């Protein structure tokens, strides 16, 4: 441009010289026309320059947009981090957060990073419901992760269903949760709570046939907390009835569990009791159980604290049944706090260190052994099932996102329902769900405390490291 400007000035000077020298009119006209042509050329070049600069600006904007990362995928969960269920709630938080950490370490989901929003519902139903409302309407979470306990899961899963949101549930095993005909909730455990006792029927049959149980179990006691989950387990053992509340104008209906798993095991129910929320009179309850002298005792609790109180009270009154089951107790603190009085205790389980199932994460194989090793490295302690369950749930939701190519919840729900022949693969095994959202073709594991260690005692021979059950309970 600088050279062209100098050329223009030179032409202008020459034109003035010609005019000053009295050149003829034709020469002057030609000179003027040449100057006009030069002006038009200059204007055209200026227009070209502006166009080029505009194209450069557009290119820079496009490149900046391409460099800008996509919004993260957002998971959200309300958990009881304080209050009655805080022990399990805190571990669920670790399981969810560790899964998100592992996903991001492996590249995220569909090339997007993952975030999780977790809030403390203080073990209160109203707080949990309001938090999930906020996740849906304010946070705009892509996927909802369920909370702990049927008490909290029942109303919050209703909210998810009403809003067309998929919700994987890590607990909430009471049949009341699953008998409502919902389409968007999926259970990440083996069986509903009422069917827990079926695994103990199988266990008793096996160990009776092999001679480990060498004297008949004739009588049983069943005690439970006044809670959705605990009462559901107790009802299954006792063969009781429970009510499914009608929704949308439908009538309530009664469901019978008769004759019950105590009867299926060939025992007579000689004592039953339900304690209220906030119960503290454990010695009186333990004395009543001891007075009935049951061979088999089933204790359905909602928290580890209740179990610890029950076992300490039984120790105080000097009673130990031949066989004892509890609905909680796989947590490490049971062995750490009881000093051996937990020995022989049986607990149903959905996960065990010995069960090396192969799951998937970020489209890659991710085994139970990988989970144990990586979690231990990250947290400085071994995981238990209260961390494994939420991790497996997160695996399932991630596979639904990959399977549908996005976070459309209706598509995810349909995909999860269609897993027959192509299961969701987790560190807790393969999952296929029925229309009601309950897992199909699953059975509980059974663990037992033996000399301060938790051992897998049923099923026998399916996994390396299975131990024989200790009988009778020390």
- Which whole number gives the mean pLDDT? 88
Q: CATH class of the largest domain, anyone?
A: Alpha Beta
What's the CATH architecture name of the largest domain? 3-Layer(aba) Sandwich
Indicate the overall shape. Answer: globular
In DSSP terms, counting alpha (H) and pi (I) runs of 4 or more, how many helices?
15
Parts with pLDDT < 50 across at least 5 consecutive residues = 1-35
Structure explained in plain terms:
The structure is a single chain. The chain folds into three domains: 9-20 and 27-48; 73-190 and 355-431, Response regulator (Rossmann fold, 3-Layer(aba) Sandwich), CATH 3.40.50; 195-349 and 445-458, Response regulator (Rossmann fold), CATH 3.40.50. Helices cover 45% and strands 18% of the residues. It has 15 helices and 18 strands. It has a seven-stranded mixed beta sheet, with helices on both faces. Strands 2-1-3-4-5 form a five-stranded parallel beta sheet, with helices on both faces. It has a two-stranded antiparallel sheet with strand order 7-8. The chain is globular. The model is unreliable at 1-35 (pLDDT under 50).
């Amino acid at each position: 441009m600088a050279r062209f400007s100098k050329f223009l000035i030179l032409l202008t000077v020459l034109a003035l010289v010609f005019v000053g020298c009295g050149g003829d009119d034709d020469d002057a006209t030609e000179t003027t026309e040449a100057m006009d042509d030069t002006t038009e050329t200059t204007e055209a070049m200026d227009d070209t320059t502006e166009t080029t600069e505009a194209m450069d600006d557009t290119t820079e904007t496009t490149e900046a947009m391409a460099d800008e990362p996509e919004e993260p995928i957002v998971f959200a969960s309300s958990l009881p981090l304080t209050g009655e269920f805080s022990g399990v709630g805190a571990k669920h938080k670790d399981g969810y957060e560790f899964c998100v950490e592992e996903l991001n370490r492996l590249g995220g989901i569909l090339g997007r990073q993952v975030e999780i929003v977790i809030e403390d519902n203080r073990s209160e139903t109203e707080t949990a419901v309001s938090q999930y409302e906020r996740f849906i309407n304010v946070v705009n979470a892509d996927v909802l992760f369920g909370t702990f306990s049927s008490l909290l899961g029942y109303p919050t899963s209703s909210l998810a269903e009403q809003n067309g949101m998929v919700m994987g549930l890590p607990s909430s095993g009471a049949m009341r949760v699953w008998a409502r005909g919902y389409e968007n909730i999926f259970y990440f455990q083996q069986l509903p709570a009422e069917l827990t006792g079926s695994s103990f029927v199988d266990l008793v049959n096996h160990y009776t046939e092999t001679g480990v149980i060498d004297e008949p179990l004739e009588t049983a006691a069943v005690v439970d907390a006044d809670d959705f989950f605990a009462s559901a387990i107790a009802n299954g053992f006792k063969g009781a009835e429970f009510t499914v509340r009608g929704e949308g104008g439908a009538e309530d209906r009664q469901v019978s569990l008769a004759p019950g798993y105590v009867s299926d095991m060939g025992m007579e129910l000689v004592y039953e009791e339900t304690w209220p929320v906030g119960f503290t009179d454990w010695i009186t309850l333990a004395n009543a159980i001891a007075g009935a002298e049951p061979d088999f005792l089933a204790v359905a609790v909602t928290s580890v604290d209740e179990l610890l109180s029950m076992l300490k009270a039984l120790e105080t009154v000097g009673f130990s049944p031949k066989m004892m089951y509890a609905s909680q107790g796989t947590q490490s603190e049971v062995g750490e706090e009881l000093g051996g009085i937990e020995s022989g205790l049986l607990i149903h389980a959905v996960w065990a260190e010995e069960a090396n199932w192969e799951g998937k994460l970020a489209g890659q194989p991710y085994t139970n052994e990988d989970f144990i090793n990586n979690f231990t490295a990250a947290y400085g302690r071994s995981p238990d099932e209260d961390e494994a369950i939420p991790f497996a749930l997160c695996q399932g939701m991630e596979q639904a996102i990959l399977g549908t190519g996005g976070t459309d919840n209706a598509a995810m729900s349909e995909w999860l329902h269609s897993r027959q022949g192509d299961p969701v693969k987790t560190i807790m095994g393969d999952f296929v769900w029925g229309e009601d959202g309950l897992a199909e073709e699953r059975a509980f594991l059974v663990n037992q405390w033996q000399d301060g260690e938790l051992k897998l005692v049923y099923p026998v021979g399916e996994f390396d490291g299975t131990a024989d059950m200790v009988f009778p309970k020390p």
